[in-house]
Amino acid sequence: MSSHRATPLDSTVVTPLDSTLALAVEGYAWLPNRMRRAGGDVLSTRLAGRRTVALRGPAAARFFYDERNVRRHGALPEPVRSTLFGHGAVHTLDGAAHRARKAMFLALLTDAGGVDGLVARAGTAWDEAVAGWATRSPVVLFDEAAQVLTRAVCDWAGVPVTPAQTPGLAADLVTLVDGFGTAGPRHWRARWARRRREAWLADLIDRVRRGEAAAPPGSAVDVVARHRDADGAGLDGRTAAVELLNVLRPTVAVSWFLAFAAHAVHQWPWQREQLREGAPGYPGTFVHEVRRFYPFAPFVGGRAVRDLEWAGEPIPAGATVLLDIYGQHHDDRFWRDPYRFDPDRFLDREVDPYELLPQGGGDPAAGHRCPGEAITEALLGALAVRLAHLDYTLPEQDLTIALRRVPTRPRSGVLIAVRPPR
Asked: Selecting from 1.20.1260.10, 1.10.630.10, 1.10.760.10, 2.60.40.10, what CATH number does the domain 2-418 have?
């Protein structure tokens, strides 16, 4: 059985004029490799023919998330908008428009039972699913987790889905995430999945607005259907569908982190005991370390608002600006022994919103940090504890985590053989 052990990234050849092909080939290693060879925290290159400046470090993150310097509007490449986020999504807005749309998502953390309500539903869906895993063991944990999370978030969000519809919806939501970092078949499957699900949810929103379908008060469907942007206008049906998907999709994306959590408790078995016993700080420190150690987003990008300079490097107005997330999470200036999986590192440090960036940096209420980060942390913590208590073994399989694949995950999806209850 092979498994991933994070090691320092190796050197590769620099593409002198444009790094687009190198990025596609090298994945997570592309930017950290070049940063290391440049010998600093700033790097100038080109992507898709556009001048690009990449930054790293907490000070760079503060600079990047200052809207006087860098903005998202017009920065997200069309392939990412057409797969991961959707056209017109909150991620593409800035200023008052962004804050008004972000407030809609933040309201969901308190309405509809808030985070606790979603976590409770996920726990119930997990327990019901586990009861059947032993009868068809082994199962792929990643796939099963995606269905558990789909059931939970649809119930919480007020999206009506039957048990027969759940596997297909879960597969589509996974596809939206899985296809954003490639130009191949995964990307085109993601485009098709987005068209299909946007049309489905736009129809639901239209029926709710016409009074032909009910939405539980305070649910995501209700909040999105009633939302007014900064200009006082409601969302058109397609944009409302985009934002509903931006509730469902990130929740199901927790499947990636749960697969990484399973990889961690297999690679370092004492982590399983710590989760079972409720060691000091667990599961919170474990959740932080999974999101730091394992690769998810390689970097985030924006567009320079005006002529800027960082660490002596000029950044012309309109240039693409990247913030190196994977490299920052594995930089020994910010993390002791960064290639060692060590949840205890978070026992003696506050989580700086500009150091730990798995879902962006800064203030989620005012900036571009993901408003659903609290949901991710709570879901991952609750399901990781349930996983630790589950009686299972891992059959022979390929647990390799390929850094060239974006987004990556254990190649087998983590195959588990669940023992029947005694």
From this structure: 1.10.630.10
